[in-house]
Write a structure and sequence with these properties.
The chain is α+β, with helices and mostly antiparallel strands. The chain is 42% helix and 23% strand. It is elongated and about 70 Å long.
């Protein structure tokens, strides 16, 4: 009888999978501790990071189901009413089995399709590193907040450096995932992220990209990764000792402004973007630097490489990170003409100009940047 029950269950599962179209998935989930008729929402994120509702259902006997279509593999999310956080899964063809825990959504089990199984394996592999990172951040949170308030860049840089060790551990796990699982959606997300990092070997990344499945290459992150990997900056006059090429672009209010009109005694051109994590990590240092030297003649001009549909994200990042200097952007991502003019192929990228507009240094960070600005300003 038990064998018959298992056979019937397997038959039902296979029948369910066979009924799915190429662009469909279904979710079969359970969660304990919530009342019947609790509302459950299926969501996705748009390019601005906003969550858009796709479907909804209600809980019955601790169970819920969704069946939906997708245009390409992507992360989607399940939101349980009155439960903090969202439960991510990868939308791809197949039946996705979810066991959710309302008090700790991050411990939930999501499996049943190839990419979701691989995502679960990746999470488990990175658990030890993430645990150490969370402990470090919890133990140093008050120290970090105090350093930001007092603009203690030495402490900020030390904490960033220590935190980077755990980031590097996770990057190593991600690289191994790309090499070993070229059909996993997680692989193309990692590859897209790495392709935008300044210190990565693009030749090696291109080999990994070529090994990806055609389905992944045709996703948004797949196309984005290829664009970054194929980008070759023109060899134009943006070297130390040369006059900085002039440029102009709209500021957040839409007014077109230029470099030459806004030169300070010393000017930093800061190429960044709201989506660039290394840029956002570096921003507290830039804020502290600007606050210390703006009264002595320092000017900063931020040039954002955000995309056309990300104007809101660009403006929000300026406000959240408290970047009170001049900003401009053509919102053309890696095709930005200013970035091409300066040969920028990775961000963050920094050019330091003297009062005559001559490039005197490039790509300095932390204490080295602060020392150079102090030298140029004679303070």
């Amino acid at each position: 009888m038990k064998q018959l029950f298992v056979l019937l269950a397997m038959t039902a599962f296979l029948t369910s999978c066979n009924q799915l179209k190429e662009n469909q998935f279904e979710v079969i989930g359970t969660i304990e501790g919530l009342d019947d008729n609790t509302k459950i929402i299926l969501e996705r994120q748009n390019e601005l990071g906003q969550f858009i509702a796709l479907d909804s259902t209600t809980l019955k006997d601790g169970k819920f189901t969704f069946k939906n279509e997708f245009s390409e593999p992507e992360f989607q999310y399940i939101q349980f009413k009155e439960v903090p956080g969202k439960l991510p899964f990868i939308a791809e063809k197949g039946t996705i089995s979810i066991i959710a825990y309302k008090d700790s959504l991050h411990r939930s089990s999501v499996k049943g399709t190839y990419s979701n199984d691989q995502y679960l394996a990746y999470i488990k592999e990175g658990e030890a590193s993430n645990k150490k990172r969370r402990k470090f951040q919890e133990e140093n949170n008050s120290k970090w907040m105090e350093a930001q308030q007092t603009q203690d860049t030495a402490v900020i840089n030390a904490l960033i450096k220590e935190n980077k060790k755990y980031e590097d551990e996770m990057i190593a796990i991600g690289k191994k995932h790309i090499k070993n699982h070229p059909k996993s959606f997680i692989s193309v997300l990692f590859l897209d992220h790495l392709a935008g990092m300044p210190d990565e070997d693009k030749t090696e990344l291109k080999k990994w990209y070529d090994n990806l499945s055609e389905t992944l290459k045709n996703t948004k992150p797949g196309k984005s990764a290829l664009e970054k990997l194929n980008f070759v900056a023109p060899k134009l006059p943006s070297n130390v000792g040369q006059e900085a090429p002039n440029f102009s672009a709209p500021n957040p209010d839409g007014k077109v402004i230029s470099l030459k009109e806004n030169l300070g005694k010393v000017t930093i051109i800061d190429f960044w973007a709201s989506w660039c994590k290394p840029c956002r990590i570096e921003n507290p240092n830039m804020v502290a630097l600007y606050n210390d030297f703006k009264g002595k003649g320092l000017q900063i001009i931020g040039v954002s490489l955000d995309q056309e549909n990300a104007a809101a994200a660009w403006k929000q990042a300026i406000a959240v990170d408290k970047l009170t200097w001049i900003h401009m952007s053509n919102l053309k991502h890696w095709k930005d003409p200013i970035a091409q003019l300066y040969g920028v192929e990775s961000i963050p990228a920094i050019f330091i100009l003297d009062e005559n507009g001559t490039i005197v240094a490039k790509d300095l960070r932390g204490d080295a940047l602060r020392a150079k600005i102090a030298e140029l300003l004679g303070v």
